[in-house]
Design goal:
By secondary structure, this protein is mostly helical. Helix content is 64%, strand content 3%. It folds into two domains: 65 residues, Multidrug-efflux Transporter Regulator, Chain: A, Domain 2 (Orthogonal Bundle); 53 residues, no CATH class. The chain is built from six helices and two strands, in the order ααββαααα. The model has no long low-confidence stretch (mean pLDDT 95). It is found in: Cytoplasm.
Length: 136
């Protein structure tokens, strides 16, 4: 902490970072981010750097990285001797996982479109969608 630096409470840190107070506490409890400094009364205090770390985590989550991956990325971010190839490898691995999930979702969509097209959608009680769900 720099001398004269403004400290924020958890609510202000949450607003500034986009991470809810509940998730900040969770990230601290699992060791993803460092434990906050505390007042004598036990209230958490956050520095500007703490908020930047929380923003980093928030952005990583928005890009779909797992907490484990974000932990690795935070380690690389803090390591001034890191090789950018390590960061790129992590990103490419995540891209491959996203591509796999997209392919799965596209297959689910195609199957559901076909089922929806086969359903009469009228007063009949028979429904191919329900029949298919029951068959599997």
């Amino acid at each position: 902490m720099r001398q004269g630096e403004t400290l924020r409470n958890i609510g202000d840190a949450a607003k500034a970072s986009g991470v809810s107070a509940k998730m900040i506490r969770h990230y601290e409890s699992i060791g993803l981010v460092e434990q906050a400094r505390r007042t004598e009364a036990g209230y958490r205090l956050y520095t500007g750097q703490d908020v930047r770390v929380l923003q980093f985590v928030h952005r990583g989550r928005a890009l779909g990285f797992s907490l484990d991956q974000i932990g690795k990325l935070l380690g690389l971010w803090r390591d001034q001797d890191r090789a950018s190839a390590d960061v790129r490898a992590l990103a490419r691995s995540h891209i491959a996982e996203l591509d796999r999930k997209i392919a799965e979702m596209e297959a689910m969509r195609r199957a559901l479109v076909a089922l929806a097209a086969s359903c009469h959608g009228d007063a009949r009680s028979s429904c191919p969608i329900l029949d298919d769900l029951a068959a599997n």
